[in-house]
Amino acid sequence: MILSGRGIGSFGTAVAVAALTMITAGCSEKERYAERYLDFINLTLHQDRDAEVSGFLRDGVSPPSAIEHPDLSGASRISFECGPDDSVRLVEAIRDQGIPLVISGTGGELPPCVRFWQEGINWRPVYSWSFEGDSCVFSARVSLSNTTGREWFSQSTVMEDLQDEPVCMVQDTLLIRNGDMELGWWRAGGRVLPLTIVYGWPQDSRWNQLVPCLVPNAGRLTGTDWPRRTGDTLWVLPEIPLELMEEVRPNSSGYRCSLVLHNQTGEYVELRLVRPERTPRGAVFSPGDGFPSFLGLNPGDLVVLDYDIEYR
Question: Is the pTM here over 0.90, yes or no?
C-alpha cells in the first residue's frame, strides 16, 4: 500500500510506504453498503465535514434498489447520475428514506454513478519531530477516524485539506475498520538552526521563541499550528525555552521597551534575534545601542536589551 503526497513543488516530493497501524480496530458485522452495490469505489476524506463515497453501480443493480439497503444511516445526501427511467423510480423510492437526493442525467455509455456523503468518517494530520545534535527528523501520519459502526472499502482514497485541495492519497485497496487507524505519510531529515527570537511573528507585537529547521524535502503541512513553514524551513517551539520578559513603558513618541533574556536551561545557547524595521502596526522599531543580531548565553546569563517603538 502506497500513501503518496500530492501538490506543487516541495509538496509533491514525499512518497512513503504506508505503515498501517491499527489503534482501535473494532470488527463490524454490518454489511458494507459500497462493497455490495458499487464497483470502482472512491473515497474522499475531509477534516471538517462528511466523507464522499462514489462508484459505479454493479451490473444488475438498479438505482432504486441501491437506496433500499437496510442501513443508510449517516448518509446526509445522495447523488445519482442515471437515465430518465431510473430517475423517476428514484424519486419514488427515496421518499421513505428522508435523505436529500440529487439526480443528473447521463449519456448512457457508462453505468449509473452513485455519490453519497457519509457522516462519521474523517481524517486529520499528525506531525512529530525529534532532534539529535544539529540534526532533525520530521514525520507526518494520516489519522483516520471511523465512527459509523461498520467497515468501509475503497479502491482509491484521497485526503483533502481545508481548502478542498488533495494533499495525499492511497492508490490501492484500503479497508477502513470501525475505530481509528493511522497511515504513514512522509518523513524527512534536516538541519537544526540556532534558536531564533522573532518580533511580531507568528504572534503580533511580541517576541516569539522559535527553532528553525532546514528541511528541504519536507512534505505537505495542513490543518496544524506546528510546525510552520517558510520556504524550505520548518519552525517549531523550543522544548526548553529561555525565560523571556518584556517591559513596556509609554513615552511621548510611543513606548520605551526592554527585552530581558535569562538562560535557565543549564546549557550554552546560541540565538539569533530578528527585529523588523516597522512593527505590524506600522510603528518604527528603533534598537538601542549594542542591540545584537546574534547572541551567546552561558547557563545563568541574563541580558537586558533596550529598544523603542515609535509612532512618527
Answer: no
